[in-house]
Predict the structure.
Amino acid sequence: MATMKDVARLAGVSTSTVSHVINNNRFVSQPVRDKILSAVAELNYSPSAVARSLKAKETRTIGMLLTSSNNPFYAEVVRGVEESCYERGYSLILCNTEGNTERMGSSLETLLQRRVDGLILMCNDRNPISEVLFRYYPNLPVVMMDWAPFNGVCDTIQDNSLIGGKLATEYLISRGYHRIACITGPQDNTQARRRLQGYQQAMENAGLTAPEACQIFSNFEFSGGLEAMQQLLMLPEPPEAIFTCNDAMAVGVYLAINQAGLKVGQDIAVIGYDDIELAKFMSPPLTTIHQPTDALGKLAIDTLMQRLEKQITEPRTLELTPELVERDSVGVC
């Protein structure tokens, strides 16, 4: 493999002159530049990305840690992150932790060894690894996306789940439903609790009761929606409507309702949360609370770039405003 010294020798110039031409950081006369570029082409020379990164103290690489999930919401956010990285000339290294603390630690170590310029964490559980990260790498730009509470100085991007939960429940109430159940995520998950609180507030404001049996903590997965809905259907007085706190669980809810010989939108209303791409292809199409997944990924990269460029110094929390998307899974009671 050709080196910069080989190029310099063939072109009859110094290695520093070759470096100036390759990095375009100092004037070099056109005849000399042409000789160097000719030598580069003849030798098929490719500058070492590692060497350049060591010299420039940047790798133009972003790391992303993602908690394993069947939820398509994650994949759609990652797509937005990848597109934004590509547009800015950055590479993305994605590590899926499979919900395993040891694997998360190993993945984090790998990303740090790769000298990533910044890090995006998208995890739905509290993890001690995050505290180690902020303690020993305080200068590494980090953006937290989505749900978990973390101890550390970083930028956080999340949707206003309290408002989203209220919006979903108020919509069901406005359609005439009174016996409304809520299937939310894990109990130690901040966004899951906030969506549940939004549901509770909307029910209380409307003078409606929200029985404990109709408030179920699940796992934000397809299976969680299925099992929770099966549990609700066994109640002496099953609910008329279901607020599932993400669209993935709504898929499981649909299955349970269909297995019971009932129809979504007619016998039981269902509203989801996230507005994943699959939502509009469900039968019937799912009414849901919209989160802009592509915009979420882009915002994460934009925020990380601002911190890398020293445009911001203090940690920030950026909230996205949820919006209702009406489809056919909610009828009129």
User: Anything to note?
Assistant: The chain has twelve helices and twelve strands. The CA atoms of residues 15 and 174 lie 74 Å apart.
